[in-house]
Amino acid sequence: MFTKLLDALFDTPNKAKVMGVLSSLFKLFFVVFVVIILYLPIFVIALQSFNDSRTVFNFGGLTLKWYEALFFAQSAHHNTEVVITIQNTLRVTFISTILSTILGTFVAIGAHVLDKKRRQQLILLNNVPILNAEIVTGMSLMLIFSLMLPVIPMFFGFWTMLIAHVFFSIPYVVLSVLPKLKEIDVNLYDAAVDLGCTPFKAILKVIIPSIQAGIFAGMLLAFTMSIDDFVISYFTTGNGFENISTWMYGVIGKRSLSPVVYAYNTLLTIITLSVLLLINLKGSKRQKPEWLKSKSYR
Amino acid sequence: MRKFKSLARPYFVWMLTLVALPLVVMVVLSFMKTNGVKFEGAYVTLENFTRLASPSVLVGFYNSMKFALIATVLSFLIGYPIAYIISKSNIRNKFLVLAAIILPMWSNKLLRVVAIGYALSEYNVLRSFMNTIGIDFMINLKGTDLAIVIGLVSSYLPFMILPIYTVLEKIDPLLLEASKDLGANGFWTFWKVVFPISLKGVATGVIMVFLPSATGFAVPYVLGNGNYVLIGTVIEDSFKIGMDYNFGSLLSLILIVVIFGALFLVSKVDKEGETLL
Amino acid sequence: MKKVIALASVLFLAAFVSACEARTVLRVLNWGDYINMDLVREFEKEHGVRVSIEVSSSNEFMYTKIERGTTAYDIAIPSDYMIEKLHSEGLLYEINFAQLENYTPDVFLEDLEEYRDDYFAGNQNYAVPYFWGTLGIMYSTAKAGVEAAVTTHGWRVLFESILLPTDTKIGMYDSPRDAVAVAQLYLELDVNSTLEADFAQVEAALAQQKTQFGSARMMWGTDELKSAIVAKNLDVAVVYSGDFFDQYYIALEEEIDIDFNLYVPDYTNVWFDAMVIPTTSKNIDLAHLFIDFFLDADVVYENSSYVGYCPAHAAAYQLLLDDEEMVEIMDTYPFYPIKDTPGFQGVIYRDLGSTVYGRLADILRNAKV
Lengths: 298, 277, 369
What we know:
The complex is a heterotrimer. By secondary structure, chain A is an all-alpha fold. In chain A, about 80% of the residues lie in helices and about 0% in strands. In chain A, helix 7 runs antiparallel to helix 10 (about 210-225). Chain A starts with a helix and ends with a helix. By secondary structure, chain B is mainly α. Chain B is about 70% helix and about 5% strand. In chain B, strands 1-2 form a two-stranded antiparallel ribbon. In chain B, a hairpin with a 2-residue loop joins strand 1 and strand 2. Chain B starts with 8 loop residues before the first helix and ends in an 8-residue tail after the last helix. Chain C folds into two domains: about 1-130 and about 275-330, D-Maltodextrin-Binding Protein, domain 2, CATH 3.40.190; about 135-270 and about 340-369, 3-Layer(aba) Sandwich (D-Maltodextrin-Binding Protein, domain 2), CATH 3.40.190. In chain C, strands 5, 6, 7, 8, 9, 10, 12 and 13 form an eight-stranded mixed β-sheet that branches. A three-stranded parallel β-sheet of chain C has the order 2-1-3, with helices on one face. Chain C has a two-stranded antiparallel sheet with strand order 4-11. In chain C, helix 2 (about 35-45) links the parallel strand 1 (about 25-30) and strand 2. The chains are: A mainly alpha, B mainly alpha, C alpha/beta. Chains in contact: A-B, A-C, B-C. Chains A and B meet through helix 2, helix 4, helix 5, helix 6 and helix 7 of A and helix 1, helix 3, helix 4, helix 5 and helix 6 of B.
């Protein structure tokens, strides 16, 4: 059996086959390995969200009680702190994503028409929050906000966190929109104005639709960076305003770590997965006819 | 469209206030000993600089660099092949595959790290669950170097895969055909044509993995069982205990200098400035 | 498209508006798992306010948070020596005891009153005692040989690994004062010493500890330690006495075996936590109402039954003694030695001054290096 295998290995036409099989096996193992690395934490979180036991070392059986507690205030395991924290997180992310997308798009449009030197300066400033270590950004913002305390005593909390999130989200939007602006036809705007549009309408009706892929990508980036943020939020929050990450950092290992947070996280993952699948299905429906078309040429 | 130039001007003010002004404040604080940001009883001193030589700071820098380097190299060794496999494959729906890679990023970062901590402990919910099926399996790594590396790679691997994949996808297939026509086999085509082009994506990936790994403090704290001193923990400490904004500012400034110094060098090599995109 | 924008704008505005708080908010700075949230909810309903509780894992961090002034705390619950420090820096409001209906001069345990006078002299008007306890060693009874080692040698097991079975994992408390104090208790030094020679000994002991156990067998944490012991991921850990009961109650609830126990060495730290009103407070009257609420015997009894710590309130302590179950528990687990327990030498932390705290923080950091 083994000698047959050796013969097969050294026999040229079969060698390619064996190499092909080996390489496919290798690819498979590799992909599985990566999936494990990336999805092990997700799986553990999901497991814990269905865990009947509150402890982190005992699996007590499957239950939906944590999901129930997430939505129903009357549920026995309802934890007001977690729900408020989740609301805070979603509120800050939602508002900062919308604000930074709108502001970022306009900044990108403005930057697009600047002269080269100024534009390069702006891009340089723009990239700083992206490249800078989060801890440094957090510390800098905290210092500036602290300096304003004498003027606005209750500043820290929702407002400082929101400003911080908008601050680090706008650069991502600018970075996504600017290249798209370079790609569109320079004359579109002028053509629109010639045809009777007011400048603002021209932007809204002509420019923005043509860069919408970039705006959408920027919005997605801003959302991702904001919903997950820990370090910068940690430094810029106060007055009891917590988002999921800062709350989590304070309750690791403690009884107050309500498993409701695992339910929230798993739910979020499922929702985003569904949304992505939906977008994908919608997209592929449009693609199908073309694919069929090209095949008919053969 | 030229009239819309003015849309960009407020941004300059915004960024200068929130980027440049803090730098000035941090420089001032580094040379003083204040009580937080209150300046009563403050005095000018160089003591923050002498504290840079203390063992915890030096070890902190060393640990941060060590973990960041290992995590980055591992992410590259794992991420590049995956990006390559995906881009070369004939899967019709690469969007889904990419989505699968980005999906973990929408789970809370800290929750993921804590979950990895559970999985790497001796007694954990995963093991208990598997026991109910009849398997007993555990990896007791929490508190070791390896645990931190695993946590870092798991958190930042997507940041390595995506830029490399983006660049690989953009490679003109005609180039590959030309290379084959000129006699290069698979390996040489890759080494001489594909790899050099992909370096731009690799550079982005490296930056996006190395920076957060070197400066973060949550992953090492949770997965290292609080045993490790890193530059991130030293800065966090200065903020937490004793309102030592002076020392914290100095460390932050040093980080800024190191980061932007390195990026400056990178930009010299990559003149088009497209590294981030 | 227009509909989408309209919807988004409405949601956006709604999100903004919901950010504005209608009710008054009472901000409390507390330790983790240190208050019964059901009682807090009761208080909220009774007075139509919202209570926001922020958590801190060390006295030093509590001090920083109060001093920084970014959050307007109405109530904080620091420990004895930190109250001394806060008071000396003028960061506390005097408490108007006349406003506290539930307060009588003999509302606290007699032995505690002695400590209070002895210790709180000058601070009586600034603090209302909350819970008290000792520093002890929690250990897992599941691992052979650990119990014997801990009960025989006390603090020594944390610094001399040969006294413990192989592969025993230990946990140290990640706060400067406590970490240094554990070393000082082990070396039988004065916990309030500021002598550099003593600190040098402490550093040496902590370095020795790291060499003997190594990072794979050690964990630095605060509240994570007690749950790690129950999970059996740690075998021995430094905890506050009430942490044991906190985990005990959880174990009862989740029906897990109680295979962990607490040992309180004779030479250890005795501490109190008390409610104070920082000068940042914007709701002083409401703060008084909150303190008053937690001076009611039934409330304290329920609080203590959840948190696991021993109350300073005499009547509540009596209620605990009247509860048969509790008496059984307290007999099995006698962790609250009152002053006259033979051989017990409990020492209280005193304020050491700002420069020393910096030194303590350095010692802790260097211990991990």
